[in-house]
Design brief:
Helix content: 25-40%
Radius of gyration: 25 Å
Largest sheet: 9 strands, mixed
Number of strands: 21
Strand content: 15-25%
Shape: globular
Structural class: alpha/beta
Distance between the termini: 53 Å
Length: 527
């Protein structure tokens, strides 16, 4: 009798164990690209409590509250944008529509050396705000340096460097993914390599990486890459090179040796990866046109220096040398994206702004116009000056991720770079489907598992039971960016459904208003 009773209990337990977890949402009939880079296969994906609970040919009787038919569509992990700058717009636009319509479910901010200084406080703010996308952050070297040295153009003392190390240490314990640098921006431009090594080493103690906007992305790119690799070697951290490009017409066609330099480091055992936005124009602030020394110590000092005729003349001469180095006669390559003091200038090139102001159609007059504008406001700019062939060659590199280098776009505000609306869709539509630069499976890997692996996001980037249910369902035949330089405020098309932590956030191409994003923390987080 005891034996029969035990057998009955075993049978009941076995039946309970075999009973599948009831899904809140069951995605049927899709072509699954699981993020590994392997070929697609037909499978169903079951989601419950924000997690993937099953992937495979699930029985017709599988229990589910809701079923989504993905017939003819690709089911993939949600895309991870490794290079964003959302710190100024998350409160104004918490739904992050531009990212979600581009298939992005996770953004990494704090890039180019600029982050919130107190990440613990920032993460609490994000927790209460609840964006529609997940957010992780780096700690910015420029932010840390400014907190200790301001905009001083000098090396830190040992005591100051220790204070900087303490700030990085605190950020890593708060959950930062690593240290970022922006070495063309004040005050990052005033730092030297040993300072970067010391601070990156602190991030390395918490398994963080070093992500860098290098000192040069044009004439001196070889030395800039060498410095980035040195920081990684000496600090013992992985290196992530941000938005790799070759700016200026004289540098076009130099991609092969640049990639060879990176690949040589990888062959030697150094972990180094890159990211890229798929466009032939960059975007940053107008002040990057000015020499570093004139920008030291803040805007009051800048105004005082440019008030001196000799200094102003020297800066104008530097601007003209920059123009000649590009082989250009006018500043037509530089277009105003955002200029709040006079929004009518947005969308105009600096050549056009100069002519609108009734000044001579000469480069020297345009240089004077640039200084007048900078003294009013540090405008956001779009700089046209990249080669399409270079973009494609960089895209072919396998250790390269897709990134937008963008903020959360506020609808119809300014004339921003289209990368904030369409980077992933552009890769899938133009470079996969139309040009065949990379395979679809490889593109999805670059948007999912490679970013997750590089930045240590252990439960993202793959369609696997137990991992977070960040999922995008898109049509590979129609997915496409629509945003252009002339008309940037247009969402990508083809992303039919997007789930963030198991919640349906885009349905039939429309944002549902759901805000289920979470803060994602680095390995060093201490509660």
């Amino acid at each position: 009798m005891r034996y029969l009773f035990a057998l009955l209990l075993w049978c009941i337990a076995t039946a309970a164990a075999a009973q599948p977890t009831r899904a809140s949402l069951l995605i049927r009939n899709g072509r699954v690209l699981d993020g590994t880079g392997n070929g697609w296969y037909y499978a169903d994906v079951a989601v419950a409590a924000g997690r993937i609970v099953a992937v495979g040919q699930l029985p017709a009787s599988y229990p589910a509250d809701s079923v989504l038919d993905a017939r003819g569509l690709v089911v993939a992990p949600g895309f991870i944008d490794v290079h964003t700058h959302i710190e100024d717009d998350e409160v104004r636009q918490p739904t992050a529509d531009n990212f979600l319509h581009d298939g992005v479910t996770t953004v990494i901010t704090g890039n180019c050396g600029s982050s919130r200084p107190d990440l613990r406080r920032y993460f609490r703010q994000l927790d209460s705000l609840r964006l529609s996308v997940n957010v992780a952050s780096l700690i910015g070297h420029g932010t840390v340096r400014k907190a200790v040295l301001g905009r001083a153009r000098r090396a830190p003392t040992e005591a100051e460097l220790q204070r900087m190390e303490a700030l990085v240490d605190s950020a890593m314990q708060a959950g930062a993914l690593g240290l970022s640098s922006g070495l063309i921006y004040v005050p990052g431009t005033y730092s030297r390599t040993p300072e970067l090594v010391r601070l990156a080493g602190v991030a390395g103690c918490y398994r963080g990486l070093y992500a860098t906007h290098m000192r040069s992305e044009s004439d001196s790119i070889d030395a800039a890459i060498a410095e980035a690799l040195r920081v990684g070697r000496e600090a013992g951290v992985p290196v992530q090179i941000s938005h790799l490009k070759l700016g200026g017409q004289p540098n076009w066609g130099r991609v092969a040796p640049v990639l060879a330099q990176i690949e040589a480091a990888r062959r030697a055992g150094q972990p180094v990866t890159i990211d890229q936005y798929p466009y032939t124009a960059s975007s940053t602030s107008m002040s990057t046109l000015l020499p570093d020394d004139v920008q030291a110590d803040g805007r009051d000092s800048l105004r005082a220096r440019l008030a001196r005729p000799a200094v102003r003349a020297a800066v104008e001469a530097a601007l003209l040398r920059r123009l000649r180095a590009r082989g250009l006669r006018h500043f037509s390559y530089a277009v105003v994206a955002s200029f709040p003091p006079d929004t009518s200038l947005q969308g105009l090139s600096l050549e056009q702004v100069n002519r609108r102001r009734g000044r001579p159609h000469r480069a020297r007059a345009e240089a004077a116009t640039i200084l007048d504008l900078v003294l009013q406001y540090d405008a956001g700019m779009v700089f046209h000056g990249l080669s399409e062939l270079d973009v494609q060659q960089i895209m072919s590199y396998p250790h390269n991720m897709v990134a937008s280098d963008a903020s959360i776009r506020v609808w119809r505000e300014g004339v921003p770079h289209p990368r904030g609306y369409g980077s992933n869709a552009r890769v899938l539509g133009r470079y996969v489907r139309e040009l065949g630069v990379i395979r679809l499976e490889e593109a999805v890997r670059r948007m999912t598992s490679l970013p997750a692996q590089t930045f240590g996001l252990a439960d993202r980037g793959l369609l696997r039971p137990g991992l977070a249910a960040d999922i995008v369902v898109f049509d590979p035949a129609t997915v496409q960016d629509r945003s252009t330089f002339e008309r940037p405020h247009q969402y990508s098309v083809g992303m039919h459904y997007v789930l963030v932590n198991g919640r349906l956030t885009v349905r039939a191409g429309q944002h549902t208003g759901v805000r289920a994003g979470q803060v994602l923390y680095g390995a060093g987080r201490q509660h």
